[in-house]
């Protein structure tokens, strides 16, 4: 198989393209509003309508938010961002609609596969991948394959406990890594100072301009990012960590995170490379499609 019709279903946008497996190129790219608040059935009905506009492909590949049973192609669990999505048998629905093979993968795992085959992880056998956005997603690549764990949901890095449980009892944030190190957490920190600082882009630009009150906020957030990464380095001893998400496209931010992480890890682990993802919004599309490589 060479030409794969791929879709990347996110909480805000869904992206579609035809991916060519030979060279990792994409054609006929488009995106549209997912309208996730309407619930899983509506999301998939809209997806089918958009996929129906394509032709000339060998199979379909789906990257999607939520925990995925890859063998059977259904959603094990999805949070309130897409109501009524848990249990959705996506592969069966799409195979019935289009009469071609369908594969389904979790979005962060798909992004990691994309980076493994076409991006920052190309040529690396073992690495971990994290994406920083509303939460923190994770993926573990071992021998160029996704490690899935006992129930298929490994690498929930965003739910590592990084703060004392007492903080929950005192009514503060949940003690998870993503509560302090996601882009949403960065924005939350900033809005405690100025409610208008409501996006990572705005915060970065103000920081770059030398806004006095932003500096300590970025320092606190990068400390949180680095502390979680240091724990993962000590657990997995990876040669490479790939960081995705819009904020991680900023070279200056990556440099700070690398410096802080390496200060926290044992010297025998300091050879780890920490790099930004390369594929941007193509990662999930190419990664889902790459599930057909060597099949």
TrEMBL record:
UniProt xrefs under Gene3D superfamilies: 3.30.420.40
The domain of life for this entry's organism is Bacteria
Pfam families (UniProt xref): ROK
- Spell out the family assignment given in the record's similarity comment: Belongs to the ROK (NagC/XylR) family.
Q: What is this protein called?
A: ROK family protein
- Originating species: Candidatus Pristimantibacillus lignocellulolyticus
Q: What is the lineage of its organism?
A: Bacteria, Bacillati, Bacillota, Bacilli, Bacillales
């Amino acid at each position: 198989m060479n030409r794969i019709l791929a879709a990347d279903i996110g909480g805000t946008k869904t992206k579609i393209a035809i991916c060519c497996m030979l060279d990792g190129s994409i054609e006929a790219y488009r995106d549209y509003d997912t309208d996730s608040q309407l619930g899983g059935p509506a999301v998939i009905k809209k997806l089918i309508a958009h996929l129906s506009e394509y032709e000339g492909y060998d199979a379909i590949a789906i990257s999607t938010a939520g925990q995925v049973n890859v063998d059977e192609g259904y959603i094990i669990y999805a949070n309130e961002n897409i109501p009524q999505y848990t249990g959705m048998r996506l592969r069966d629905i799409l195979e019935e609609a289009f009469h071609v093979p369908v594969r389904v993968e979790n979005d962060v795992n798909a992004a990691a596969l994309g980076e493994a085959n076409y991006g920052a992880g190309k040529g690396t056998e073992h690495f971990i991948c994290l994406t920083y956005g509303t939460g923190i997603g994770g993926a573990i690549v071992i021998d160029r394959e996704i490690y899935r764990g006992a129930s298929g949901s490994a690498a929930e890095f965003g739910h590592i406990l990084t703060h004392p449980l007492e903080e929950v009892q005192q009514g503060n944030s949940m003690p998870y890594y993503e509560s302090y190190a996601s882009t949403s957490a960065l924005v939350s920190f900033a809005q405690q100072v100025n409610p208008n600082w409501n996006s990572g882009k705005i915060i970065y630009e103000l920081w770059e301009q030398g806004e006095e009150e932003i500096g300590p906020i970025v320092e606190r957030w990068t400390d949180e990012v680095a502390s979680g990464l240091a724990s993962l380095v000590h657990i997995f001893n990876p040669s490479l960590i790939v960081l995705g998400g819009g904020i991680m496209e900023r070279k200056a931010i990556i440099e700070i995170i690398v410096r802080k992480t390496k200060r926290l890890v044992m010297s025998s682990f300091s050879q780890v490379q920490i790099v930004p993802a390369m594929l941007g919004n193509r990662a999930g599309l190419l990664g889902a499609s790459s599930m057909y490589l060597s099949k």
